[in-house]
Design a protein that fits this description.
Strand order of the largest sheet: 11-12-16-14-13-17
Strand content: 15-25%
Number of strands: 18
Structural class: alpha+beta
Mean pLDDT: 76
Distance between the termini: 110 Å
Helix content: 10-25%
Order of helices and strands: HEEEHHEHEEEEEEEEEHEEEEE
Low-confidence stretches: 76-84, 96-105, 128-142, 178-200, 224-230
Number of helices: 5
Largest sheet: 6 strands, antiparallel, barrel
Radius of gyration: 28 Å
Length: 455
Amino acid sequence: MIAQPARARSGITLTEILISILIMGVGLVSLATLFPIGLVRMRDAARQSRSGLLAESVVGNMGSGNLLDKSSFAQTYYGVPGIGNSYDPFITDRNGTLAPLSANALTGGLPVCYDPLWRSVTGIIPVVANPSFTLPAGSFSSQAEARFGVGTSLIRTDDDGNPPSAYGLQRISNFVPWCAASQNYPLTYPSPGGGNPAGLHDFAESTFVSSEDVVMQNNLAGQEILLNQSTSGTASGVVPMFFPNTVTNNAETRIDYHFSWLFTGKQIDVTNGTIFEGDIVVMENRPFGVETFPGSPTNYPSGETVVEAVYGPGGLPQGFGSPNYVPAASRSVLLRWPSTMPDPEVKVGSWFADVTYERFPSISDARQSNAAATGTTYPMQRCYWYQIAKKSEIINEYDPNAQPYQAGYRRMTVFTTSPIRAQTLVVANGKPVNVNVALIMPSVINVFSKTFYVR
């Protein structure tokens, strides 16, 4: 039999085409996913680099400007009628009647938030003793005080019948608004003169904002290019925009508030006002202003959401007396908030702070005495920053009889990269003895622990 020659193929089959398209599609999809991941990695790298550089600049500014010199805080900006210039925010607080409040025999001072940029941008100041200075309408209020991490009307009442320890840290500044041209302030840092409080922005901007972020020109009418020149259509988008300095009236480059910073910390000894320890907090695109949360009549600083927190949640194991601390929960934190509030923005890698702060000594003593039997007590005035390593899903609480879980609340658990510095006292079923709180601030991108010495 004669063998027949193999017939030549006329082309590829439809099946082969589909398989090829599938392989190519998988490759393209895999390649496409690299772009957003790469952009995220580049953004994170830029944030880490910029925040590190800014922190080093902060250390230089704090030292060279002697910004924490206590003599610059005890002036009429924080002076109160009847108290004079004796008020020292690092060791005393004040209650609603503006009476001085003792630091309650603390070994160290009270934690404060040194945040002149927020004060200068918003123009919200707490009190001015000079009677010739007219306060804005409504400024003599909780909004004017604008404490850092305040959440008294957002958090449930403590079981002892008192408000929660969510009064927030005092937000202090020694960039003093000028009350009168003849007023003499012995400030460490230059204050604007000539009775012009607007110059405060220029000084605060040059210190508390990253100078690498400049505002570029545009073609919009009304934008100053050089001093008072503002002709539409003549701007150049490749050079910085210049504004007149409100004090010197010289042209200055306007800085964008892209990266900025504040300091949370305290003096380490009430008898020594020259050594301070705390954290440089670096923020990106921080909002400035006040806002109202649903269900709360009080205004709160924008971008600062306070929720209830249980540091080291869980039930006590057998053999542990109640109340006590959960022994195996040194890196977990339970966050919970009313379901009427918007869910806070909590992401892996982001930061939050334990801002449990009780401003009344008698209540502080009573709440600390609850923990005396355990042999461990934590300060009732604190500010500890934590970074989130992982988190759980947000769920609705459903069982009103299984405290601390109750209907009308939402909760999630986060796990921190470092051990918790102050746990919450709980009873056998995991219910907290006293309410602790946490500050959620999405604009924070890095926190650096530092010690500063004042000359």
